[in-house]
Recover the amino acids of this structure.
């Protein structure tokens, strides 16, 4: 397995407005270093403990993105350095992130995770909850957060049309918000969708951030 080769093969085909988050969860430091030496700087992790040890030992110009369900009581550990949290799925989490970002004199970028899949188990706000959130002008309450966009995960299925429809639904919501509530707000620009198996569909539907693990690093053990 050659990580640099795989990484470059993915990057070659990306439109200029799409950035790649290399999802390094459960992979060794040496794998991350290989991607780093090939020029990759954006990495995604989904466990706080694992992220902390990687953050401490790997180069400081890595931009770390948190992509998994984040427990409210663990926010304090990552607040000093996290660049973006893709997976914000509750008001409680927003409050905590805002408080700790403030304590560390930072503004943290966040994406609201929207539940678009059919599976029950996936976290995220419903479309209705997002509408309520916006109608109540909630984004204005979090002065230490930057509302950078939306994130979603499609159903784990072979049915490409279903995946496409789920991404298209999220994309439509994103553009609707961008042209209404967030119009003139340059920060609200990210649509995080697409993983190893479905990222080409996600890009066609307007993704700006793809989160890819297996296709770069191989299977996780
Ligand atoms: C693990 C994970 C990914 C990457 O998945 P792959 O199929 O390995 O590309 C992307 N997004 C989230 C939220 C993940 O947990």
């Amino acid at each position: 397995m050659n990580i640099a080769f795989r990484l470059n093969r993915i990057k070659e085909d990306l439109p200029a407005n799409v950035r790649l988050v290399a999802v390094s969860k459960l992979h060794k430091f040496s794998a991350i270093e290989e991607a780093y030496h090939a020029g990759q700087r954006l990495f995604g992790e989904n466990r706080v403990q694992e992220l902390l040890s990687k953050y401490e030992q790997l180069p400081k110009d890595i931009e770390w993105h948190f992509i998994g369900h984040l427990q409210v009581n663990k926010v304090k550990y990552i607040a000093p350095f996290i660049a973006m949290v893709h997976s914000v799925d509750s008001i409680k989490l927003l409050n905590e992130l805002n408080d700790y970002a403030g304590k560390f004199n930072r503004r943290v970028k966040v994406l609201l995770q929207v539940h678009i899949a059919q599976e029950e188990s996936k976290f995220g706000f419903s479309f209705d909850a997002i509408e309520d959130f916006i109608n109540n002008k909630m984004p204005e309450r979090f002065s230490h957060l930057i509302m950078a966009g939306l994130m979603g995960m499609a159903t784990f299925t072979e049915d490409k049309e279903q995946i496409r429809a789920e991404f298209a639904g999220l994309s439509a919501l994103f553009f609707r918000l961008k042209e209404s509530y967030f119009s003139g707000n340059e920060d609200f620009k990210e649509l995080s969708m697409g993983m190893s198996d479905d990222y080409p569909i996600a890009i066609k539907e307007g993704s700006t951030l793809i989160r890819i693990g297996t296709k770069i690093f191989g299977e996780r053990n």
Q: What stands out?
A: The domain at 3-217 is CATH 3.20.20.10 (TIM Barrel). Residues 23, 25, 46, 67-68, 153, 195-197, 211-215 surround pyridoxal-5'-phosphate (CB under 6 Å).
